[in-house]
């Protein structure tokens, strides 16, 4: 199984559609067999879902993601866990132990990097767990 995590400076990046890097973990028999840092080339969520599918990824761990991303990932048969924060390695180990702290109701209303709802610059959707 391949697990991709949105990545920035060792942490789970907080907006799936704007991630520039994925840390991809290959797992066999509940053990990590390889780890690769992969450039996402800054594609939007539709292209990113195809990018992950083409790499053989079956699980995505990320911060915020919107309904469009959720739909596209589901269409590609990629299981996703949003609302995750912290170290990427620790997130994958928690996932493997069935102890990942995630938010199945996470929403993103696309206010990333332009002030938006919270009225602050460099707003990260995942930090506020936006919901309807």
Description:
The chain has 132 residues and is of the alpha/beta class. It has one domain (2-105): Nucleotidyltransferase, domain 5, CATH 3.30.420. 24% of the residues lie in helices and 24% in strands. The chain has helices at residues 45-54, 67-75, 88-96, 125-128; strands spanning 2-8, 11-12, 21-28, 31-39, 59-61, 79-81.
Write a concise keyword list for the protein shown above.
132 residues; alpha/beta; Nucleotidyltransferase, domain 5; 6-stranded mixed beta sheet; 6 strands; disordered C terminus
Low-confidence stretches: 110-132
What is the end-to-end distance?
Answer: 33 Å
Write down the secondary-structure element order. Answer: EEEEHEHEHH
Q: Provide the CATH superfamily.
A: Dinitrogenase iron-molybdenum cofactor biosynthesis domain
Strand content: 15-25%
* Overall number of structural domains: 1
- CATH level-3 fold name: Nucleotidyltransferase, domain 5
Instruction: Sum up the overall morphology in one term.
Output: globular
Q: Estimate percent helicity.
A: 10-25%
Count of runs of 4 or more consecutive helical residues: 4
Name of the top-level CATH class: Alpha Beta
Radius of gyration: 14 Å
Q: What is the count of β-strands?
A: 6
Report the mean per-residue pLDDT as an integer: 83
Major sheet characteristics: 6 strands, mixed
CATH architecture: 2-Layer Sandwich
Based on secondary structure, the structural category is alpha/beta
